[in-house]
Specification:
This protein is mainly β. It has a single domain, classed as Metal Binding Protein, Guanine Nucleotide Exchange Factor, Chain A, CATH 2.170.150. It is built from one helix and eleven strands. An eight-stranded mixed sheet has the order 6-7-8-9-4-3-10-11. A three-stranded antiparallel sheet has the order 1-2-5, with no helix packed on it. A hairpin with a 2-residue loop joins strand 8 and strand 9. It is globular, with a radius of gyration of 14 Å.
């Protein structure tokens, strides 16, 4: 069981299932939403993700048609994303987890649109200019 929450502590959640592949997404939307060079995400089954507290604090922003970014309305922490095209999945922001998820990044996605100031360290992970193969799980966070 994994647990996590937002910066202010108002939103708390648990994941009662396995994480999908951990992806480091460098697309412009993920950079803006995270305020960093990339976002670290992993897909989880929607039925394995459960809000424990702060449901009333959660807000969603439709970043592109059918793509929703969910965040705490009090502190602004991004918690997950969901897509109408993939209703059975949530893309959890790994920075909101309380502990070690037990999984490590498998790839960098959308490297072609990475921040120009990001040196992108030689970490041995696969790099994809865009989305990457379906084996990496749900579509990335464009």
């Amino acid at each position: 069981m994994l647990t996590g929450g937002c910066l202010c502590g108002g939103v708390r959640y648990e994941i009662a299932g396995a994480l999908g592949p951990v992806i480091l997404c460098h697309c412009s939307q993920c950079r803006r939403a995270s305020g960093s060079a990339f976002a670290a995400n992993a897909s989880v089954r929607a039925d394995a993700f459960r809000l424990l507290a702060g449901t009333e604090l959660m807000r969603e922003f439709e970043a592109t048609p059918g793509k929703f970014r969910a965040f705490c309305g009090r502190c602004g922490s991004p918690v997950y994303a969901r897509m109408d095209a993939w209703p059975a999945l949530r893309r959890v922001r790994l920075g909101t987890l309380d502990g070690d998820p037990g999984a490590r990044p498998q790839a960098h996605l959308h490297v072609a649109s990475k921040a120009p100031w990001d040196a992108l360290a030689d970490d041995g992970l696969e790099r994809f200019d865009a989305e990457g193969p379906a084996a990496l799980g749900a579509p990335g966070d464009r």
